[in-house]
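Follow-up to my earlier ticket, as requested here are the two runs.
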Amino acid sequence: MNRRNLGALVTGSILSGSAWADSQLNLTQGVTEISRQVYDLHMLVLYICTAIGIVVFAAMFWSMAFHRHSKGVKPATFHESTKVEMLWTAIPILILISMAVPATSTLIDMENNDDADITVQITGSQWKWHYKYFDQDIEFYSVLSTPREQYENLDGSSAAKGEHYLLEVDKPLVIPVNKKVRFLITSDDVIHSWWIPAFAVKQDANPGFINEAWTKVDEPGIYRGQCAELCGKDHGFMPIVVDVRSEADYALWLKEQEMLIAQAAAAEKASLSAEASMDELMQLGEQLYIANCAACHQINGAGLPPAFPALKDSPIALGDVNAHIDIVYNGKAGTGMQGYGKQFSLKEIAAVVTYERNAWGNNTGDAVQASQVNAVAGDVSADSEPVKAAAEATPAAPVAEEPAAEEDLNKVYSMDELMAMGEQVYNTSCVACHQPTGLGLPPAFPALKGGAITTGDKAGHIDMVLNGSAKNPAMQAFKAQLTKTQIAAVVTYERNAWGNNTGDLVQPADIDAASAK
C-alpha cells in the first residue's frame, strides 16, 4: 500500500462517524440523584485538575521560552521566601477543601439507607445472583442467558453474538420507579461485587457479612451491570440486569410472581406422585446440565480436575444414587459444588441426576423421580411455603375445621419453660439472620450476644420483636407470625442466652399489654 492510500485510510478511520458513534469519553450521569451527584463531583475535580495543569504547564513553558540560558537570563539567587512557602501550602489546602466538602456530602448520602420502601437481599453465588424480596414471599436466581454457542468458541467458530452479549439474564431484578430500594449484599462462597453503573452502586458481596447500598431510580427502563470482582473461573459470565417499572407495572409483576409461585408449587406437588419417563428426564436433565453444570464439569462430563471432578465414569455418578441426589441437592462443603435445592424443583434435580447417571456412557439405567429426591432431602415438600401456597390456591373439598386452642395469656411460665420454647422459636424464625451463636451478620443483622437491645430496655426489646424496626427494614415485625406466648419466650431466650443473663422473664401478659399500646 502506498503512502498516500495509507494516509487516506487513517484519515478516513479517524473522521468516520461510525468509529466515534458509540464512544464514551466521560462518565454517564446515570438515572438516580446519587449518580448525578457522583457525576457532578467528578466534573468538579476534573475542572480543578485541568485548571491546575494549565497553570503549571503554562508557567513551565513560559520559563523555558523566556528564561532560558541562551537568552542570557541569570537565575535567581534567593534561597527561600516565606510568602511563597505560605502560598504553596495554603492554596493546595483550599483546593483540597473545595473537593472534600462535596465529596463528603455525596458519600454520606450514598450511605444513608434510612426510610427504604423495599428491601432486597442480594447473594452472590458462583456464578449467578440470588434475589430475595423482604416484603414479599419472592426469591429467585438470576443466571446468564446468552446462548453458550456464542461464547464457547475454542475451535474458532461461534454463533453470531446478540445485542446484549454476556449482559443478559433469564430473570432480572424488578424494582419500581421513584421508590427507595435498599440492597443487603452478601455472598455464599467467594467475594463478588454487585455493580450497576447507571445507579452509581458498586458494593462488595463478602461471605459471612452483609454490606448495604440503595437506589431510587427516576426513569423506568432496563439497566445492566456485572460482577466487578475477580470471583473465579466464570467471573465474566455473571451479569446483572435490573428492570425498573412504573408502580402499576410493578404491582402487576408482584401478582404475576404470586401466580407463578402457586403454579410451581402445584406442579411440585403433582410431581411427587408422577412417574416421568427416562426420555423426559434425560431431555430436561440435559437442558439443565448445559445451562448450570457444564461450565464446571464440561459438556462431555470430563470436568476440570481437581476443583471440578469428572462426572463421566465417576464414583458419584456410578455409585449410590441417594448420595448423588444429596450432593446435587445440598452441595458439598469446602468445595465449589454448591447445593441446588433452592434453585431447582424436585423434578429438575431428579432430571439432572438422571442425566448425569446415564450420559457419556455411564448408562446406569437409573430414572430418578421427584419423590425419591424429596425423600433424600427430608420430605421438604411437606412443610414448604410454596406447597402451602399451592394448597391454598387449589380448591379442595370442605372439611370441618377444629377451632384453634385459645392462648392463655394469664399463664405464668418458668424460666426453663420459656427458655426451651424460646430456643425453638429462635432456631425457626431468627437464626438465619442472627446466627445460632447470636453474633448476627452486621450491620444489617446486629449481634444479639451482648447487644444493646437484648441487654437494655426490656420494653424496647419487646416492641422491636412485635413491630419490627422503622430504621432497619431487615428487622420485620413478628406480631402476625408468632403467638404472644412465642414472642414472650423468644424475648426471654434472647435476653438470657449466650451469656446475656439478664434474668428477665417475659410472660404472655407482658406481650399482650405491649400489643395494646
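Run two:
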Amino acid sequence: MPYDPQAIARYYRWRPWLLLWRTFQILSSLGRFVWGLKWDQWTRQTERNRFRRAIQLRRVLTGLGPTFIKIGQALSTRPDLVRKEFLEELILLQDQLPPFPNKKALALIERELGRPVSELYRSMSPQPVAAASLGQVYRGELWDGDAIAIKVQRPKLVPKISLDLAVIRKAVVWFGPFLPLNLGHNLSVIVDEFGTKLFEEIDYLNEGRNAERFADNFAAYPDVKVPKIYWEYTSQRVLTLEWIEGTKLTASQCMVNGKRDPDALVRTGVVSSLRQLLEFGFFHADPHPGNLFAMPDGRMAYIDFGMMDQLDQVAKETLVDSVVHLINQDYRLLAQDFVKLGFLTPETDIRPIVPALESVFSEIIDVSVKDFNFQTITDQFSGLMYEYPFRLPAKFALIIRSLVTQEGVALCLNPDFKIVEVAYPYVARRLLAGETPEFQRRLLEVLFKDGKFQWQRLENLIEIARTDDSFDLIPTAQFGLQYLFSGDGGFFLKQIVLALTEDERLHTEEVSRLWDLVKEDFQPQRLLGAAFGALASFSEEAVANWPPVVAITTAQKELQNVA
C-alpha cells in the first residue's frame, strides 16, 4: 500500500491513546539514554562508561523498532560524526538484529507463495543468516541448484511504521518552527518523503523491479554486480534472489577477512554513485556497508534495492551545470542553478546571494583535493541556509543522504581516503570526452571565458583526468577532432584559431606546460593517428560542408565572378 499521511492522520485522530502511548515509549527510552549521558558528564565517568552507553543506544534503537533502526543505520555510516565505540554498535543494526521466530517466517512464505516450503526450495537454512530492520534473510537452494537468498518481511510492519511516522510528523509540526533550521518549508515534507520511501521499501515486488532496472543500467560496467531476481518465488513480502558470495564493505571485514584493496573498492563505489546521479538519474538511496559487498573476483555487489529514487533529465543536467559553474567560479549562474534545483524559489532576488555564495565556495575551491569532503560543503552551506531564503527540496534530502553515506563507507574503509580524488577525474573525463551535445556545451563553458580560450582550465582538466587510470587522451582527442569537423564545431574552431593567432599567452610558459603535459604520456604518433582517424570518419560531403571549407569555396567563387 502507498504511504498516505492524511489517511494515517485520520486513523490516529480517533485513536489518540495509541499516539500518546507511543510518544511516551519513545520519549522515555531516549530520555533514559540522554539522562545517562548527562549523569556520566556530571560525575566525570564519561570515558569509563562510553562502551556501556554505546550498547545502551543500540538496544534503545532496536527496542523502538524499524523506523528508529533506520535512523541508527544512517548514523552508522558517519565515523566523522559518531564516536568509534558508538559506531561499532550502530553497525550491528545493519544486519545483526534480533530475528523473529522461524515459525512465523515459514508460515508467511507459504501464505505468500501458495506452496509448502519443501516444494519451493531444495534446501533452506534452519536459522536466518542475517536480520535487518524490515526483514530477515535465509540462505537456500533451488531445485535446479542455484544458490539463493530468501528475504522474508517482519510481521506487522505497516502499522508499526505508520504509528512512528504519525508521531514524528506531529512532533516536527509542533516543534519544527522552534528549531534553528531554515529549510524553506515544513519539516513534515521531509518526513513524508522518508515515509514514501519506507513504504516503497517494504514492497518486495517494487524492490525486485528496482534491482532489474539497476542491473540494466550497469550492464556495461563489469565492476558492479546486481543479484538476479527469481520472480516465480517472489511476492510483496517474500523476495528470492541470487546469493551473493562476498564480504561486507566494513574496514575489518574487507581489509582483514576479505583481504581486499579498500581504495579500489571505494573507487568503484564512488564512480558507480556518480553514474547513478549524473548518467542514469536512478540511484541507490541507502548504500550503507550492509548493502555493499566485496566479491572474491574483485567486483562490488549492491543489494537491497527498496530505497531508490530518480532524477529527471533537467535535474541531471542542472547538477552537471552547477559543477561546471563552481569550477568556473561563476556564482551568478550557480545561484540560478540553485533556483532550477529548487533550493531557491523562482521569485528570489539572487543578487544579494551571489556574494554570499562566492565567500563560501571560494574557500571550498581553494581547499586542496586531499583536504576536501562533503562535510566541508555541508558545514559551510549550513550558514547560508539559515541566513538566506534557501530551502532543502525533499527529493534532495535522499541524494544528500546517499552521498554522505557513500563518503561514510569510504571513511570506514580508509580514513585518509578523499572522495573527490575520484569524483574530480570522473567529471573531468566526461567533460573532455564530450559524449553528448550537452557535455560539449559544458566543456565550452569551462574552456572559454569572456570570449577567451582558457589554457589553464584545459591544463587543469587534463591533469585531473590523468589521475584516473581508465582515462586515455587519444579517444578523447579523436572525438574532439570529429566535433571540430562537424557543423556544430565551427564556433569552437574559430575561437581556438583566434586563441592561437591572437592570444598573447600562446607563447607563455603556461601553454608550454600544457604541451609537455600532453606529450609526456601520449606520443605525437598516437595524436597524429587520432587526427587521421577523425578525418577518415567523415565523408567527402561532410568535409565539403565543414564551415571553413565552405567559407574558402565561397570566396573562390566570388573571386571567379569578379574576374
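The only thing I checked on run two: The longest strand covers residues 135-141. Let me know what else you need.
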